[in-house]
């Protein structure tokens, strides 16, 4: 019978076949291959297999060792035999490639194999055959038979300093020990120096594994065994035994280029953190074949020479943080076939050469954060076929090409480009990343990343998208949770243009054109009309100035409508929102609408006060004359112009005005987030045990104190004056109608007031909803969405500018009866 075991990190193959001797023995038998499933992260710490063979008492089991090359203490191949005629057990660890055969009487034989899944050695191959007890004497010529009578080894393995017989008999009576050899306590057995402190007992009393913290610790270091709490550190496996502890080596004194060749071979942790190593010798780690974790952080390293890790095939984790590495060369990590974790953050890495990650086929995680990488070449990580986590925060990466993930698509689960000046992600970049769970795209540049509808194509299983730019959340895959690391813009929406929708776009053109043509006509007509009375002249002055203010509002609407067409979808896909809000055109549009709205409010107030005085106090000497009307309207325009200039200056000093409004006017209808603090991202913490923090606001405060003072202060006072004045006028109307009917001087004044009421009323009902909402919002009673904000600013506020020209025609008839003498 032939038993062979070929093993690796993912596949176990077992085959049994029978081989007859002299025409007698087993009939040929085969067992098909057994393939283990793919192991999830973290890989299981070990795999154990066991096979049992039962034979009769008149048979002998001969096990020929064709090939035996396993790694102890990490892997073990153990034979346990119970003879048929007694109950005693014989336990034989098979550790030596010099072993040629074992001869066992009939009974129960158990072969147990344990591996930690690191493919360090070649495995084993055994021939198991059954013979009659009388024919075995001729099978062991040209071999040394151990004292136990069970094992035979190659003759050349006798007295070679390597224990091959489980009873140590091959190293007994070999003469005096060499000066470099280690002599086992209480015996004349000598073993090679490389066998001392290698994690496997080679002496009968296991004294070769004692005092390793002093006998096998380089000068200037501290060594010892203790539990290792780091979750990525070495853990005991069933092969090494539950009492196994990692052997650590800590550098404690300034580095003088000491050799590490004398360190205990079983060392698994080497800590050089903080030592000024500066340069790594290519053979520096050759004697540390069992090294699991290497910490070379803050060692002032400028280079990792290719081949320096070539013999560290068991190395699992490298921490090379806070050095001065500038690039990674081709072959830098050659030999690290089992490396899983690679920390290279806080260096000066500017370049990753092709082939720098050769041999890292089992790499699980790489951290390249806080370096100076400006680009990632296509196929850079293609050798890291098992990589699941790739993080590159705080670099200078401006663009991501479509081949950056070539070769690592199948396993990649986390990608982080946090805090890079990204402005371009090529189409198709994420195609094939079907297992990606978390994607971090957080650009620090003021130039927004250009998006396209298919940017997330291929991310079928994305669970979390972490961003600064809220636009990504609008096109994120449906099942993905979009996490905004910082609070989004108060008026952000997923609209593709800054004008809300098609209805607003159409009405913006209709109202704008109507305001321009209607008010231009009124102005021309008023300038051509020659009033013959002082009342008519005063009225004409007010109406003309109101028409000009409404003309400016029409200009504002046409500017917005035109720029909406010009910018189009690039507002969203190219991220031009900030560019638009801070543009000169938006500043001019904001100034125009501010000037128009405030001039209108003040002119309406002046017009209402004039009607109030004329009706309530018809015989007063303090009426507004034509000259006073011109002076007052001039003052209104100057004051409104100054307010508009102040609004622009305030925006430069504190960009909370137009920068918070796509329609270029900062109405006090929103509140901004304040008292920002870092909040733990519980989703990332629970899934990956990694602490990430989001910036959140604990409260909000009023925005644009200047606009609050103007719109909720001055304008509110103006409309209160208007409201109270017209209440008084209506009471006066009722009185006049009862006393003098609809004749005489008072009746004419009332008629004019009623006509002007249409103009004042439309402005009043456009402004008052905004004022009331502003008061409620700033009192933190309600909040409105950005959609409602857009409707109020674009549709409600300027509509009176389009209606007023048609209302002006109601009072466009000549005044035939003067109400007072003109005082020019």
From TrEMBL:
<dbReference type="Pfam" id="PF13855">
    <property type="entry name" value="LRR_8"/>
</dbReference>
<keyword id="KW-0677">Repeat</keyword>
<dbReference type="InterPro" id="IPR002172">
    <property type="entry name" value="LDrepeatLR_classA_rpt"/>
</dbReference>
<feature type="transmembrane region" description="Helical">
    <location>
        <begin position="789"/>
        <end position="811"/>
    </location>
</feature>
<dbReference type="InterPro" id="IPR032675">
    <property type="entry name" value="LRR_dom_sf"/>
</dbReference>
<keyword id="KW-1015">Disulfide bond</keyword>
<protein>
    <recommendedName>
        <fullName>G-protein coupled receptors family 1 profile domain-containing protein</fullName>
    </recommendedName>
</protein>
<feature type="transmembrane region" description="Helical">
    <location>
        <begin position="631"/>
        <end position="653"/>
    </location>
</feature>
<keyword id="KW-0433">Leucine-rich repeat</keyword>
<comment type="similarity">
    <text>Belongs to the G-protein coupled receptor 1 family.</text>
</comment>
<dbReference type="GO" id="GO:0007189">
    <property type="term" value="P:adenylate cyclase-activating G protein-coupled receptor signaling pathway"/>
</dbReference>
<keyword id="KW-0297">G-protein coupled receptor</keyword>
<keyword id="KW-0675">Receptor</keyword>
<feature type="transmembrane region" description="Helical">
    <location>
        <begin position="708"/>
        <end position="731"/>
    </location>
</feature>
<keyword id="KW-0812">Transmembrane</keyword>
<dbReference type="InterPro" id="IPR017452">
    <property type="entry name" value="GPCR_Rhodpsn_7TM"/>
</dbReference>
<keyword id="KW-1003">Cell membrane</keyword>
<feature type="transmembrane region" description="Helical">
    <location>
        <begin position="541"/>
        <end position="563"/>
    </location>
</feature>
<dbReference type="GO" id="GO:0005886">
    <property type="term" value="C:plasma membrane"/>
</dbReference>
<dbReference type="Pfam" id="PF00057">
    <property type="entry name" value="Ldl_recept_a"/>
</dbReference>
<dbReference type="Pfam" id="PF00560">
    <property type="entry name" value="LRR_1"/>
</dbReference>
<feature type="transmembrane region" description="Helical">
    <location>
        <begin position="599"/>
        <end position="619"/>
    </location>
</feature>
<dbReference type="InterPro" id="IPR003591">
    <property type="entry name" value="Leu-rich_rpt_typical-subtyp"/>
</dbReference>
<dbReference type="InterPro" id="IPR001611">
    <property type="entry name" value="Leu-rich_rpt"/>
</dbReference>
<dbReference type="InterPro" id="IPR023415">
    <property type="entry name" value="LDLR_class-A_CS"/>
</dbReference>
<dbReference type="InterPro" id="IPR036055">
    <property type="entry name" value="LDL_receptor-like_sf"/>
</dbReference>
<dbReference type="GO" id="GO:0009755">
    <property type="term" value="P:hormone-mediated signaling pathway"/>
</dbReference>
<feature type="domain" description="G-protein coupled receptors family 1 profile">
    <location>
        <begin position="518"/>
        <end position="808"/>
    </location>
</feature>
<feature type="signal peptide">
    <location>
        <begin position="1"/>
        <end position="23"/>
    </location>
</feature>
<feature type="transmembrane region" description="Helical">
    <location>
        <begin position="752"/>
        <end position="777"/>
    </location>
</feature>
<dbReference type="InterPro" id="IPR035914">
    <property type="entry name" value="Sperma_CUB_dom_sf"/>
</dbReference>
<dbReference type="Pfam" id="PF00001">
    <property type="entry name" value="7tm_1"/>
</dbReference>
<keyword id="KW-1133">Transmembrane helix</keyword>
<keyword id="KW-0472">Membrane</keyword>
<feature type="disulfide bond">
    <location>
        <begin position="197"/>
        <end position="212"/>
    </location>
</feature>
<dbReference type="InterPro" id="IPR000276">
    <property type="entry name" value="GPCR_Rhodpsn"/>
</dbReference>
<keyword id="KW-0732">Signal</keyword>
<feature type="disulfide bond">
    <location>
        <begin position="159"/>
        <end position="174"/>
    </location>
</feature>
<feature type="transmembrane region" description="Helical">
    <location>
        <begin position="506"/>
        <end position="529"/>
    </location>
</feature>
<keyword id="KW-0807">Transducer</keyword>
<dbReference type="GO" id="GO:0008528">
    <property type="term" value="F:G protein-coupled peptide receptor activity"/>
</dbReference>
């Amino acid at each position: 019978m032939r038993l062979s075991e070929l093993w690796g990190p993912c596949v176990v193959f077992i085959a049994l076949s029978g081989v007859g001797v002299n025409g007698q023995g087993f009939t040929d038998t085969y067992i098909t291959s057994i393939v283990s499933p793919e192991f999830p992260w973290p890989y299981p710490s070990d795999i154990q297999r066991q096979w049992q063979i039962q034979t009769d008492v008149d048979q002998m089991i001969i096990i020929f060792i064709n090939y035996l090359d396993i790694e102890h203490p990490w892997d073990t191949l153990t034979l346990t035999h119970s003879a048929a005629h007694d109950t005693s057990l014989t336990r034989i660890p098979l550790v030596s490639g010099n072993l040629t055969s074992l001869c066992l009487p009939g009974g129960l034989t158990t072969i147990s194999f344990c591996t930690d899944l690191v493919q360090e050695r070649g495995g084993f191959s055994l021939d198991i055959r059954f013979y009659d007890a009388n024919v075995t004497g001729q099978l062991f010529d040209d071999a040394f038979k151990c004292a136990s009578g069970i094992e035979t080894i190659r003759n050349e393995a006798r007295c070679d300093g390597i224990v091959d017989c489980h009873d140590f008999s091959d190293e007994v009576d070999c003469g005096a020990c060499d000066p470099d050899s280690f002599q086992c306590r209480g015996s004349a057995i000598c073993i090679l120096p490389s066998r001392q402190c290698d994690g496997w007992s080679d002496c009968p009393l296991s004294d070769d594994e004692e005092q390793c913290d002093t006998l096998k610790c380089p000068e200037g270091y501290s060594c010892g065994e203790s539990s290792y709490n780091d979750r990525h550190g070495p853990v005991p496996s069933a092969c090494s035994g539950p009492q196994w502890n990692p052997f650590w080596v800590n550098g404690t004194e300034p580095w003088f280029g000491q050799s590490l060749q004398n360190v205990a071979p079983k060392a698994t942790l080497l800590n050089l953190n903080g030592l000024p190593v500066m340069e790594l010798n290519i053979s520096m780690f050759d004697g540390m074949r069992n090294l699991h974790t290497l910490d070379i952080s803050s060692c002032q390293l400028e280079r990792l020479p290719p081949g320096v890790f070539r013999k560290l095939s068991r190395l699992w984790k490298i921490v090379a943080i806070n050095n001065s590495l500038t690039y990674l060369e081709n072959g830098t990590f050659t030999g690290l076939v089992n490396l899983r974790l690679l920390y290279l953050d806080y260096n000066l890495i500017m370049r990753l050469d092709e082939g720098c990650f050769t041999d890292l086929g089992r790499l699980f995680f790489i951290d390249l954060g806080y370096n100076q990488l400006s680009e990632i070449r296509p196929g850079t990580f293609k050798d890291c076929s098992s990589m699941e986590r790739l993080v590159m925060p705080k670099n200078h990466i401006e663009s991501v090409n479509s081949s950056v993930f070539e070769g690592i698509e199948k396993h990649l689960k986390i990608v982080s480009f946090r805090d890079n000046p990204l402005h371009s992600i090529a189409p198709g970049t994420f195609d094939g990343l079907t297992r990606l769970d978390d994607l971090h795209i957080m650009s620090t540049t003021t130039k927004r990343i250009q998006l396209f509808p298919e940017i997330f194509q291929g991310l079928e299983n994305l669970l979390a998208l972490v961003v600064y730019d809220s636009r990504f959340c609008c096109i994120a895959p449906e099942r993905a949770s979009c996490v905004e690391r910082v609070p989004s813009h108060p008026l952000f929406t997923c609209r593709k243009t800054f004008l809300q929708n098609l209805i607003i776009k159409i009405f913006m053109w209709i109202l704008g054109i109507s305001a321009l043509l209607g008010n231009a006509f009124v102005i021309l007509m008023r300038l051509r009309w020659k009033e013959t009375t002082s009342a008519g002249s005063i009225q004409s002055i007010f109406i003309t100035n109101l028409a000009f203010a409404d003309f400016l509002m029409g200009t504002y609407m046409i500017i917005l409508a035109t720029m909406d067409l010009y910018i189009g979808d690039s507002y969203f896909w190219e991220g031009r929102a900030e560019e638009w809000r801070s543009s000169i055109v938006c500043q001019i549009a904001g100034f125009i609408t501010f000037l128009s709205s405030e001039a209108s409010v003040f002119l309406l107030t002046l017009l209402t006060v004039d009607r109030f005085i004329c009706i309530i106090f018809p015989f007063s000497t303090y009426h507004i004359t034509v000259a006073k009307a011109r002076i007052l309207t001039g003052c209104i325009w100057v004051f409104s112009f100054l307010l508009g200039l102040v609004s622009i200056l305030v925006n430069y000093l504190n960009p909370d005005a137009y920068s918070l409004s796509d329609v270029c006017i900062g109405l006090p209808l929103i509140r901004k987030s304040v008292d920002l603090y870092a909040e733990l991202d519980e989703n990332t913490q629970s899934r990956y045990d990694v602490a990430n923090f989001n910036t959140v606001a604990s409260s909000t405060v009023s925005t644009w104190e200047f606009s609050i003072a103007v719109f909720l202060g001055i304008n509110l006072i103006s409309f209160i004056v208007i409201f109270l004045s017209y209440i008084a006028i209506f009471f006066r109307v009722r009185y006049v109608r009862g006393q003098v009917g609809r004749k005489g001087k008072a009746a004419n004044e009332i008629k004019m007031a009623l006509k002007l009421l249409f103009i004042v009323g439309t402005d009043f009902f456009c402004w008052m909803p905004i004022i009331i909402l502003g008061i409620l919002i700033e009192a933190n009673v309600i909040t409105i969405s950005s959609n409602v904000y857009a409707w109020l600013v674009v549709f409600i506020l300027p509509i009176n500018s389009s209606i007023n020209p048609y209302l002006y025609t109601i009072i466009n008839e000549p005044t035939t009866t003067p109400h007072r003498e003109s005082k020019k």
